[in-house]
Amino acid sequence: MNLALNSSVKKRIDARVKSGRYASAEDVVSAAIMTLDQQERFGDFAPGELDRLLEEGERSIAEHGTRDSDQAFQNRKARRRDR
User: pTM above 0.70?
Assistant: First the structure.
């Protein structure tokens, strides 16, 4: 596959390869696609939404404590099954 990329994108890819974090431009593009897949799978958040959700979770833990992980997974499976 051949792609035409603008100079700004090419520079950003080259910078990542030169940093040593990636062996090739193909590795940079592969990492970008994997990140995009994760973002699409877990949902996009509106600006500030993730921070708000994290704060809400921390408040919930402070007020109600935490649950046993095995029980939480069982509850989640039951909710999925009931849908």
Answer: no
Is 23 within the bounds of a domain?
yes
- Give a yes or no: residue 1 inside a domain: no
Number of domains forming the structure of the chain: 2
* Domain extent at residue 74: 49-82
Rounded (5°) CA angle 59-62-68: 110
pLDDT digits over 31-42, tens only?
999 988 887 887
Q: Report pLDDT for 49.
A: 86
Tell me, yes or no, whether 20 lies in a domain: yes
CA-wise closest residue to 25 among 13, 11, 9: 13
Q: Cα dist. 66→4, 16, 51 in Å?
A: 50, 40, 19
- From the centroid of its chain, how far is CA 67? 24
Rounded Cα distance, 2 and 74, in Å: 47
Are 38 and 54 in the same domain? no
